[in-house]
Amino acid sequence: MRMLYNAALIPLRAASVVFGAWPRARESDRLARDQRLGRRLPAIRRGAVWIHGASVGEARLSSSLARALRARRPALPLAASAVTPAGRAQLPDPPAIDGAFYLPLDFPGVQRRAFDALRPGLLALVETELWPNMLAEAAARGVPVVLVNARLAPERLARYRRLRSLYAPLLEGLAALGAPSPAEGERFASLGVPARVIRVLGNLKFDLPRPEVDPAALRSRFGIAPLRPVVIAGSTGEGEDSIVLDAFAVARASVPDLMLVLAPRHASRFDAAARAVAERRLSLAYLSRAESAGEADVLLVDTHGELSDLYALGLAAFVGGSLVPVGGHNLLEPLAAGVPVLFGPHTHHVVEIAEAVLACGAGARVADGRALGRAFAALAADPEERARRAAAGRGLLEANRGANARAAELVLDVLDRAVPRAPA
């Protein structure tokens, strides 16, 4: 089955040859291109723990895991990779770790080149980053693979079951799998992961650092009056910005000076979000331009990596991908900033966290845009309810902390038992 997988990659491999020869104006672009081809990777001492997560959320978890490993073993070499530019920007640079880079493409030759350069002692994959040639190369060299915060959304589970002949041999070779919940562990067991390697560690997202930001300083930075009410809509998906803007109009009927901070999930949608704002004749400020947002109706977050801090501006926060059938994003970031969280009906990617948030009263589910607007208005008008929900959120986070430390101990335990082989 892996032969068919590699055959399907042939057009991409041809494109990568052209990509590799194409001149780029900026050194950062050339470096990203070369690293994706397995070249110009950072010089790391042999035996490093290589941590990989795809984009922003996973890269933040990678960084948190790296900090826990460095705290326990200061001399242990650490490397970290990401797929997207936004994810790469979240990874720490030396001396916090020994090197950060873009993930090399999953072609056999490129992965061999990467493993030759990095000579890792262990590969730690965050969430569900299962690249067949990467895993096969690790297996050929006796490099143990640990999956941490392992998650499988329903659609991914169905896909892996369809491709079981490709993934089952790779999953059976995992040295350890840290699941956020028993249900997630059972999903992986159904795909062939041996029960003996599965550990339920809890969700690493509960251990992400809390924003060290002063809301008053944030307001001063953007010229927002100290008492002006602000609501946040973070990680909005395709088709969701319009729903949120209509909800904002509903809320402003009760709270006329309300301001919206709007953060689309992907950079490709920044312009569309700006057009949606303009169509409603709302005034707009851009985060990237460092302009005063004091009188604007909407502050568009057209950058990546700042949303977790910006939640602290809000009286309430909506987390996107949930009013459209994406499956929801990180509901814990607003709680870490001390802000009540709202989300829609589509939360199949964050089922357990959504249930926990509802059970403790830190947030609420809204059925549609109109309900979101009413919820924004209600929370803006009720400081006691906001304080109650914020306290419930802090309690939820505290009660579930510790998964990151457990994941670090699992990685070190596997590393200590590993005996890498020379490549064939």
In short:
The chain has 424 residues and is an alpha/beta fold. The chain has two domains: 198 residues, Rossmann fold (3-Layer(aba) Sandwich), CATH 3.40.50.11720; 185 residues, Glycogen Phosphorylase B (Rossmann fold, 3-Layer(aba) Sandwich), CATH 3.40.50.2000.
Task: Show the helix and strand layout.
Blueprint: H1 2-8, H2 10-21, H3 27-36, E1 49-52, H4 56-72, E2 78-82, H5 85-90, E3 99-102, H6 108-118, E4 122-126, H7 132-140, E5 145-148, H8 154-162, H9 164-172, E6 176-179, H10 182-190, E7 198-200, H11 215-222, E8 230-236, H12 240-252, E9 259-264, H13 270-279, E10 284-286, E11 298-300, H14 307-310, E12 316-319, H15 332-336, E13 341-343, H16 351-360, E14 363-365, H17 369-380, H18 383-399, H19 403-417
Helix pairs in contact: 4-19, 6-7, 8-9, 12-17
